[in-house]
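chain below, 254 aa
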Amino acid sequence: MNTDLSVLRQSAPLVHCMTNYVAMPFTANALLALGASPVMAHAPEEVASMAQLSQSLLLNIGTVDAAWLESMLMAGQTMAQYHRPIVLDPAGAGATDYRTQAAWQIIRTCHPTIIRGNASEIMALNHTCVTTHGVDSLIDSAQALSAAQVLAAQTHSVVVVSGAVDYITDGTQVQSVKGGSVLQTRVTAMGCVASAIVAAMAAVNPNPMEAAFHAMTIMARAGERAAALCQGPGSMMPAFVDQLYQLTDNIFQG
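prediction:
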């Protein structure tokens, strides 16, 4: 029986990643290792055309500015017209009003299929007063679960809260993924890669709850295996990419 991972490798979906400067190389390499085909395009002259060619879209506001936000909205509206999945990573939401407002503008305009963020970001989108530390979270993911459920119901999106335990909810159902490694929190853009993998899974699975659950399972299992092999954060990134390449469908069993 094929799983999302085997279908992904057979079909190599084009994942349009409108992501931040910090995350681009890591994101591209991770998607290629997994079996997807990433493309990074931000120019307003081409984003709509690129969106038409893509099977899913990632919108990550980590280094957003006015021009990028305009391009993201254009791409998102195009994908919505074609009823293709959109994943929003509200990186740093809550750190500044601009980021939070940008995330909400994308939500209201593009209606993302899945929103993935850390606990602080999800709580900030739910207008909960939180203490942020740049784009990192100072809050445990379990503390953000109720906010995620409210946000999911409000936006009609599946919401993923990343942390020591990842939570996935559509506002009613809740699934969780345990595992991974603390070393993943010491590697920049690991969360951005998680959102890209969510987008890749959503490209091959029309059920956003399942797609998000499988994506976070991939993150956890690859993180565990990479941590067992590497010496620290510096070797964690290449080890993680290698483990993505070596994963099999067995990770979804049991």
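The chain has a mean pLDDT of 94. The radius of gyration is 16 Å.
thats it, cya
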